[in-house]
Amino acid sequence: MKKMKLAAFCAALMFTTAGAGFAQVSNTYTATAGTFKTDVDNFMDVNDWNTVKPKNIFGYTGFAHNNIDLGLAKQFKNFYAGVYFNGNLWSGNIATESTVDTNSVETHNFTSGTSSNNVSLFAGVGNWGFKGELVYQPNSSLTTESNTSNTTSKTDSQYYYMNTSLSAGTNITAKGITFKPHASLGVIVNSNKTTTKTSGTAPVDTTADSGYSQIYIGLGSGFVFPEKYNIKQSALFDTSFYFSIYPSESATNNVTNSSTAVVRSGNYIILSPSYLVQTKPVEKLGLNAKVSAPITFKNTHQGDTTVTTNGTSVTTAGNTDYNDITFKPTVALGLQYTAVPDKFIVNSGFSVTIPSFEYTNTNDKEAGTQDQSWAYGSVTTAATFGFQYFFVKDIGISTTMNLFSYSNASSSQTSEISTSLSTIWSSSVSFDFTIKL
Known about the structure:
Blueprint: H1 2-16, H2 27-31, H3 39-42, E1 57-63, E2 67-75, E3 80-88, E4 96-102, E5 105-111, E6 117-125, E7 128-147, E8 152-170, E9 172-174, E10 177-198, E11 204-209, E12 212-224, E13 231-245, E14 251-253, E15 258-282, E16 285-292, E17 295-309, E18 312-316, E19 320-327, E20 330-340, E21 344-353, E22 357-364, E23 369-376, E24 380-392, E25 395-407, E26 414-417, H4 421-427, E27 430-436
Antiparallel strand pairs: 1-2, 1-27, 2-3, 3-6, 4-5, 5-7, 6-7, 7-8, 8-10, 9-10, 10-11, 10-12, 11-14, 12-13, 13-15, 14-15, 15-16, 15-17, 16-20, 17-18, 17-19, 19-22, 20-21, 21-24, 22-23, 24-25, 25-26, 25-27
């Protein structure tokens, strides 16, 4: 039996190298529009990790042309440990160059690699789950140089992103209801600097800094209600608080020996409620429906602007608040049909994003003016399909593919439907492979 499982592992591993990459979300979850979950979704979840229950280990993998997705968890006697990695390995780190010569102006572009990596560590003890996560995009850049007989111009943009967080969660059952409280604390660093240098009769040497950092806190809980009439119901309510920190100087000019400092602050809150209903009309058919209604409240404040030139500072008073409220509800329906028990399962899903609503308010207290606006977003729909196939018990492969998408985002309404197998295969097919021993 062990030889059969190893053989199945090798075969499936080779097969998944042709699939598209994805983050730590199962293809079953994607194929059913977020209404069905598997062990891939749960093995690093601070609330649901203890539903995986491997006797020894659980692992999964997915590959793409330049992306790899790997996860592994091991059950010790009184301790559960997991690790997860997702990232670009080769083509994401390759630099590119191009040169264009037009009308005696030679333009040279150089773009460095833009790899992105996600590493997570997990520990489960008793009824508690703990997770540490690092999302890291190393320094990448875009450099543009242009040359004429009298002037040389160079623009260099540098980008860097890092998101690190710690989270914890547990499960509590009282009066038939299971509560799943969880909390997280994280820091985001987003560096974005652009330097422009031009020689000639009007030299330029400036640096603009549009980067920022954020501290965020997440609080929330899931709720699983008692099953009645073959219907399971659950809810989730998450709240995230973000506090933004901006650089002390937003721009410098080395030619005029000056710098510009703008007093800025920003905070926003995201409320993420959702409700899931699960039922099985017949033995082999599962039908789930989910409603999500995230609401975002943003506030950005811009205060005084101080320009310092050769040691002399001039401050222009400012006191402007930018407020924004966005509401974006989504309805999803997922279907799961067990064609062959413990062997072959068909998944499908359909989702509709109801027109989002956005309210903005700009209040310039210094000038005594206030502007308001309301806007409605587009209607988007998507249909997905996939399946799960188990080579032997607890070793299987799952897929997902996009069949149809539609959006009325513009006056020329757009839709896309995959009309051939070659189109589906090249643009939207993903695979993941799982093993549990």
